[in-house]
Amino acid sequence: MADGEVPVVDKTAPDMSRGGCAKIIGVIWNTKHTSGDLGEDQEQIVKRTFRELIIYLVFLIIVCIIAFGMASTNMFYYTKVMMDLFIEAEDSQGVSFRSITSVDDFWKFTRGPLLDGLYWDKWYNGQDLPANTEGYIYYENKLLGVPRLRQLRVSTNSCTVNPEFSTFITDCYSMYDRDLESTEPFGDPSATNNDTAWMYRSEDELQGFPYWGKIEFYSGAGYTRDLAINRQDSAKIIDDLKSKLWIQRGSRAVFISFTVYNANINLFCVIILLVEFPATGGAQPSWSFNTVKLIRYVSDFDTFIMGCEVVFCIFIMYYVFEEIIEVFATGLKYFMDFWNVLDIVLIIMAVVCIVFNVHRTLTIVGTLEELLKDPLAYANFESLGFWEMRFNNMVAITVFFAWVKVFKYISFNKTMTQLSTTLSRCAKDLLGFFIMFFIVFLAFTQLGYLLFGTQVNDFSTFMNSFFTLFRIVLGDFDFHQLEQANRILGPIFFMLFVFFVFFVLINMFLAIINDTYSEVKSDMAKQTDVFIMSDYIKQGYAKFWDKIGFRREKLEGYEQILTGELAGKKMNVTAWKEELVKNGFDEGDIEEVFTKFDVDGERILDVAEQKQILDELQRLQHEDGGGKKKKGEHENDDEEDADSDDDGGKGAGDSVPIDEFLALTRRVDRMEGTLRSIVKNIDHVLQTLVYLKK
């Protein structure tokens, strides 16, 4: 440095703290994107991918334990028992909830099967139950609080009567709509006596929850009447509502809701029975049985699940930091990778599940405390049951995506490469095909809806028509319904749809996939083999057995062949394989050893080459049988290999380790494939020049 020259400080050089952080990140979050070295050797990429796969498999096991720990076959049987009791049970006149078609059927159901199912006050032999066992369904399921009846109505003259009929049609009640919902008291004021059954209460007052029925989407408000804790009082309430015409022309929906709890299996069943009364008249029953596990941590197994949930949260934090690092490392290119987008979706869904799990645990505690304060009040579990089912659905989707993500780590497999390459190559063709397919499909959907929507249930709505046509594609159809709806247009519609969609479009789709797959398979057959994950696993397997002494058995087998009948004679690869296969050796290992010592490449081991193998075997056997080395000798085999390499290959027994030899062989093969491709292109150019000269 010259006198007076100011030393320049390199501001771009990382300090020790930044270097330490980068080193920690490189060790913990060592992925393809975080390493920043995308042009490294294929073997290193496979090793890194294998490490990611092992970590992810642990995460996947934790996810599956949590998901299946929340579900059990008891949920199905619990739901089935409750449905059989309240949906299928009939009264003396054969009326069940499923068969309700009128208001009269509704009252028969509530007075018969409903009360029979809710109140079990006698044993099967007719004896009265003890007082402390009242309120149990099937003697095992505790009815929480009391059941509730809730009605939604529409206002009078909520629709317009045609002037030509206004002289003899005075009242008009529209289909249900929240804007047309009646909020005024109804019935005889002197008879109702300000009863809640005749007074409207808002959704906030009832702490209600919207419900999607078969016909409409209903609010959580309405006119409510809670039943009693025993059968006699509940029967009087139902008889009183029936006699005072609680259900009238403006009634559009009546809900029967209650919750039962089984302590034996720690499950809640939130039951909602809905009867809709459309403006057309009649009645349409539907139901919802949400069997959920709201109290999560009771048994020892539940405690184990809680521990797995803690580990799951740690994994989510790990992957959140990993994705943040990858975004900073790659920028916007990060979002162009499908697997990265899937990672983000998985993390978002997992975080939502964690938040809901905490919220559910806190909410259920408050709800149960309120219920214990007033056991005769209605137990409002509708919202909790609904969101718990949505939570279970999200967990199921998360597990599904988690299993799909496994393909990200096994993409080095040849079959997976063929699949992914096929889909990527034909993506544009498939996009064009799907546009054409859905134009034709939606045209047939609208045609079926307009032609048969008034007579055939499968075409009664646009969505029903859409899914019915998909079922036809899969072979599930009822041709006679179409024929009965329209004897001429029905068969014509069916034949045209089958011809254009099934015979033409579906076969076009298969042709696109098959043609692209054939091209990909042909191209991959021309490529030289690359280092794949199976190679890495086999290599690790071989090293493992070498370390525990299995190598000695191999060495003794090779030595027997070289000192046996074929000793002193030239030995070709066929004879070499036959002798070793008889002794149970793997053909891949046999070929590797033969190729390693066949220096001249004639596929024949001469006497000198056989002697070289024997020298190598003796050296390796000496290493395996030498036990602990004396002080001053090499401390491990890796140092001996390094010393042998430093000697410059002196001596007949010096050799390259087998894994390095295989790696070099693969690189040479790839180089040969590249050169072959270059020569082929040059030859093509020369032929083109000759053609142009002519």
UniProtKB/TrEMBL annotation:
Disulfide bonds join 159-172. The keyword Acyltransferase does not apply. Residues 585-620 form the EF-hand domain. It comes from the Eukaryota. Gene3D superfamilies: 1.10.287.70, 1.20.5.340, EF-hand. Residues 618-656 are annotated as: Disordered. It is a multi-pass membrane protein. GO terms for molecular function: calcium channel activity; calcium ion binding. InterPro entries: EF-hand-dom_pair, EF_hand_dom, PKD1_2_channel, PKD_2, Polycystin, Polycystin_dom. GO terms for cellular component: cilium; cytoplasmic vesicle; plasma membrane. Pfam families: PKD_channel (PF08016), Polycystin_dom (PF20519). This is EF-hand domain-containing protein. It comes from Elysia chlorotica.
